[in-house]
Amino acid sequence: MEAPGDGPPADAPRLVKASPRPGQARPPPRAGRTVVARHRPRIPPIAHPVRAPLLPTPCSPPESLVPTSSRSAVRTAVLPVAGLGTRFLPVTKAVPKEMLPLVDRPCIDYAVAEAVAAGIERVVLVTSPAKASLARYYEPDPDLEAHLRAHGKDELLARVQAIGRGVQVETVIQQQALGLGHAVLTARKVVDDEVFAVLLADDVVDAAEPAIGQLIDAWQPGHAVVALMEVPAEETRRYGVCAGLWREPDLMEVHAMVEKPAPAVAPSNQAIVGRYVLPREIFAILERTDEGSGGEIQLTDALATLAARGQVLGKVFEGRRFDTGNVLGFLEATLHYTRKRPELRAGLDEILDRL
To answer: What is the pLDDT of residues 11-31, one digit of tens each?
Structure first.
């Protein structure tokens, strides 16, 4: 989650603490800082979207992901991928962070495959002019395919042709990285849907059922849905934390959000991670949202506006999440997905035993 603005206005909504989930003791009263939206009449200019000349090309989901329902309400997913990837410098000076491989597939492909498995038909990459390789990955490569075919490499040919299968991939250029909220707003002119998904490629989720699909199943008209993950108390300072009432054991009615609270003041241990289902209304709210820290427009602030209206749900998803946006999380994900490959697991274990 992004850092919020400098503080709530005097008429900010009262923080409502999360009620205990079934089987949990009620936490003692605590105080936290509520993230609220501040508004002003202007926003930074957004470059006109540019659609990449991409065809609906072949992306098959990982073996663990299979479509589970039609989920026809949500057809478009936005992936904000314009960041500089400074935690991975110097390699990200030349290679986009999202193209770093987890085994033999780039990180971004895990998010796209998850979207496809959830029934998403169209993916919009909000990217920067310096990241042309993201679009190229989803374009057909006739020369490569001809080479593989001529040399009888049929298995590799099939894997290359499977990239992007079942989804239309487009790109929109974000000229300046001005926050997650601005990235979502940049996609406005090519997203006509009443509701759409947002996936952060840094958050890779290994799940029997796609995480974004679980959020779509929980979606209700006029609402946003955010992915929730229970974290240890000492880690709440790393996330945005939701406060509200439990409708079901895994579904919260979110009343407020506390950005990176210390464990002693966290209203719950339900952290927001990078999966969202958003109503089109979010664009109008983002247009009026004031810049937060670093001059960025924060999606958190816009969601806080919806939460104050009772329009945000938090879904505790099932699956194992990896934060590939930092080096150790990336290494953990690499080891996890390597060990899931039968032909690689024994060799990896031997290597680890020698270390």
So the answer is: 433 343 444 555 554 444 444
State the Cα torsion 260-263-266-270 to the nearest 10°: 80
Rounded mean pLDDT, 113-129: 95
| Residue 44 counted as domain residue | no
Q: What is the pTM of this model?
A: 0.79
Is the distance from CB of 290 to CB of 179 less than 8 angstroms? no
Query: Could you tell me if residue 10 is inside a domain?
Result: no
Measured between alpha carbons, how far is 139 from 142 in angstroms, rounded to an integer? 10
Dmax over CA atoms of the chain, in Å, equals 70
Domain count, the chain: 1
Whether residue 169 contacts residue 52, with contact meaning beta carbons closer than 8 Å, is answered with yes
pLDDT at 16: 38
Cβ count within 10 A of residue 134 = 22
Give the pLDDT confidence score for residue 296 in this predicted structure.
Answer: 85
Least confident of 67-71, 103-107, 219-223, 336-340: 67-71
Q: What are the pLDDT digits (tens) for 193-232?
A: 899 999 999 999 999 999 999 999 999 999 999 999 999 9
In this structure, what CATH number is given to the domain that contains residue 173?
A: 3.90.550.10
| 198 in Cβ contact with 181 (< 8 Å) | no
Host domain of residue 95: 76-354
Q: Is residue 54 part of a domain?
A: no
Above 80 in pLDDT, residue 108? yes
Residue 65 lies in a domain: no
